[in-house]
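Deviations from the work plan: none for this task. Representative record:
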Amino acid sequence: MSLASTASLKDQPSMLARLFARQELALLVCLILVLAFFSVTVENFLSVRNLTNVLGQASLPLIAGIGCAVVFISGEVDISIGSLLATIALPLIIIMNDSNSLLLGVGGALLFGLIIGVVNGYLTAYAGINSLIVTLGTMFIMRGGVYLYTGQRAIPDDASLDSFIALSDGRLFNVIPYSAVIAIVLLAAFAYMMQHRPFGRQIYAVGGNQEVARLAGYDVRRVKFICFIISALLATVAGIILAARVGSAQHTAGLNFEFQVVAATVLGGVSLAGGIGSLSGMALGVLILQFLSNGLRGLGLPTEWQLVITGMIIIAAVAFDEAKRRRANGG
Amino acid sequence: MSELTHASAPRRSIGGQLLGSSQLVLGLILAALCIAISIAAPQFYSEANIIAILRQCALVLIVASGMTMLIITAEVDLSVGASLAFVGCIGMAVLNSTHSLALGMLAALAFSGGVGLFNGLVVTRLRVNSLIATIGTMMMLQGGVYLFTREAVQNHNRLVSFTDLGAGYVGAVPVPVILAALIFVIAYVTLRFTTLGRYLYAVGANEKAVRLSGLRSERLKLFAFVVTGLCVGVAGMILSSLMNAGQPTAGRGFELTVIAAVILGGTSLLGGRGSLFGTLLGVLVLKVIDNGIIILGWNQDLQMVVPGVVIILATYLDIIRNKANVR
């Protein structure tokens, strides 16, 4: 990790960009290898139906992963997103049941998400508490709060609005799931922001070296604060799609989701040390893990083996990446 | 706190000298909690309840002792919960087939120590960030335990010595509490009074300096990982004795409780700072809260909410106190 952060200081931007390019190339090769392996071993793996299904499943970690990557790049972590999925489903479902309006429900959910982001961001950026502690705390508080409120029972979606159900099984042109469309649009927008907008550069600067960023006149606290809000709002979007998919507000929704997203993000080359990584890398990381678990299921392996193999691949991939980075730095 | 922080702190109150910096806040929180709960529910101070609290603390404290060492070296282990469940199943299976407590314990310690060694090697040799490495191990163990057994491994050995491990007493004190106290004291002495302990702090505070001064920092971190693993082995056997079965679903979220207790005790996630005494206080605070919620008859789901608030609040109070000290 220390090697990674010094690399970002020493290297020129162009060099850095080349490093990213190579990183993503390696990930892309990985993804193609995964696809190639399963297309030979699993029947119908490369069918449009299966590919778009995986894309739909990948949309949740993709959307939440954008926020996770943005927070990582700013040099912080957010592990409260799993509990957030369960939390924001409550206002969403309750308001929809009462008002029969998707818009009001989504608005209520986003408002809740915004408040959670503000709390996480304020406690980290302005109160100065370590973000792992803050989000560990809010993770407990939210999960416990959901248990308290629901009495550990699911709240079913009684409104059954067509527009809400379309979020789970609707497909654009009858091909691409709407959830995947949302994920792709958000990904493109945020990738543009990170690479081409001043605010994106500020996030990289703050995560790369906080002191330098401060001296350059950036408001470090504000940047981090906003990153947490971005993360919470994106997780909210993921939570809305999840609620549509299960058709209810589940108190157990999103258990261990944060680990899934963190693993995919790091696999995608986004450094926990801050300042390094890209959203396209994160997206490739998510896709590799999703296609892997889909393919393993296609091979008829039980879920347990999927967990074991995914765990091994995460360790191997990050280890490989570290080794490559060390070699690139000459030692 | 550690010698390192003591040296850097400009002024210290007498209380601050007696206890470490954050321990003072935590001690006050603990005292306030005990007073408040005992006013609302006098049975809080009954012998039975205090023994119940201590027994609850034992499991967490055993693993937290190792985890404190590990976090002081600036690493973390998220796989302890999954490992706890796996160890319980393996230990019970070996007990059932050998009818020997020694062999069962040995198998449990070998497995959990092996998990620690694996984590340590991945982190120190392959240079994988420990947060990610141990998420990976966690997944492998969670999957692995179901491949090992689909259902709980029941106790078929009926060994009295094994049942005593969780439910037995020496005098008035439960056996798990004695084991926890023993492990705590060993870890405390190691961290506080030995060169090895000082090296562990040094590795966490400045790994490069430690390496340049000729110490093998990897070895030290590896040691902390293995110790954490071994602690999980002991805790896993106690847990399976208490439940009278090896449960593959046990230990869900256990890693977060342990880490919360360690952090609450003032150990810095950045490494180099922290103390086992703080961890003891952290465990006590969390378990007294749990107990209070039960004996006050509150909704048990609050057992998740309140610790969350306490972790954030205690850390925040500590920051404020530090700022006041600097001024």
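The domain at 2-328 of chain A is CATH 1.10.3470 (ABC transporter involved in vitamin B12 uptake, BtuC).
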